[in-house]
């Protein structure tokens, strides 16, 4: 049922789940793939080898992110399902105790005892299991774990982040690739960090600075490794 509000209330926390997954996947895809391409370019690898490494890193990273999210969120879904079974059994075997438990939850939140009892009775009559999952355990249907959705979203975000360095490796001359990929990657990280924090309600610059710092560190380390081994092999 839609409940009208007298004024709009745009909240930021409702974006937390998808924003975290999108930012994590895109940043991971951009930093890891750009670092891999930069390392290969610093080692003076052939253009075809650099592109192949970038494509392989993008594919492996996307699948790894999808698998990791699927396993992680599946575990969360299993725990939620187990809690639902426990609550369903408790409601069936100890209805009065569960009703009192729900009443005390509302009392602790500031509702008068008599009114809390009335609310608990009405919610139990409507959907007791949903009331206990939501108010006792904090499990909301809107926020429940969805493993397949999480896996696909993470893989898509990683791929989107990995595409710019792969495209650069495809179109840019290998001899000057390192000098192109570093500023392009840092600029994209700056933009993503800024937008992510702005969406979350911040001023954007702290988020941009955090992402930029870690991205620059990753690029510097992999460039150093590529140059070291490239010289050693050469």
Structure, described:
By secondary structure, this protein is an all-alpha fold. It has a domain at 17-81 and 146-233. Helices cover 80% and strands 0% of the residues. The protein has 7 helices and no strands. It has helices at residues 16-42, 47-93, 95-108, 113-135, 147-171, 177-199, 205-233. Helix 2 (47-93) crosses helix 3. It is elongated. 32% of the residues are buried.
Beta-strand level of the residues, as a percent range? under 5%
Return the string of H and E elements: HHHHHHH
**Shape designation:** elongated
Helix content: over 70%
- Provide the structure class: mainly alpha
User: Stretches where pLDDT falls below 50 for ≥5 residues?
Assistant: 7-17
Write out key terms for the chains shown:
mainly alpha
How are the secondary structure elements laid out?
Layout: H1 16-42, H2 47-93, H3 95-108, H4 113-135, H5 147-171, H6 177-199, H7 205-233
Gist of the model:
The protein is mainly α and 234 residues long.
């Amino acid at each position: 049922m839609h409940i009208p509000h007298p004024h709009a209330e745009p909240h930021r926390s409702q974006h937390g789940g998808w924003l975290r997954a999108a930012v994590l996947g895109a940043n991971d895809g951009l930093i890891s793939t750009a670092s891999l391409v930069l390392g290969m370019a610093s080692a003076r690898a052939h253009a075809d080898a650099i592109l192949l490494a970038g494509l392989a890193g993008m594919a492996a990273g996307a699948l790894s992110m999808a698998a990791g999210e699927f396993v992680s969120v599946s575990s969360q879904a299993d725990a939620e399902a187990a809690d639902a079974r426990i609550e369903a059994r408790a409601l069936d075997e100890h209805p009065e105790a569960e009703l009192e438990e729900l009443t005390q939850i509302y009392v602790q939140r500031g509702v008068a005892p008599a009114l809390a009892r009335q609310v608990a009775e009405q919610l139990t009559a409507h959907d007791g299991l949903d009331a206990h999952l939501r108010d006792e355990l904090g499990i909301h249907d809107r926020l429940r774990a969805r493993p397949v959705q999480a896996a696909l979203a993470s893989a898509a975000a990683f791929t989107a982040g990995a595409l710019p360095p792969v495209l650069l490796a495809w179109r840019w001359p290998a001899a000057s690739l390192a000098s192109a990929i570093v500023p392009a990657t840092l600029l994209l990280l700056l933009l993503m960090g800024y937008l992510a924090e702005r969406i979350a309600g911040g001023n954007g610059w702290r988020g941009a600075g955090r992402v930029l710092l870690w991205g620059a560190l990753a690029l510097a380390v992999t460039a150093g490794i590529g140059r070291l081994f490239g010289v050693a092999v050469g």
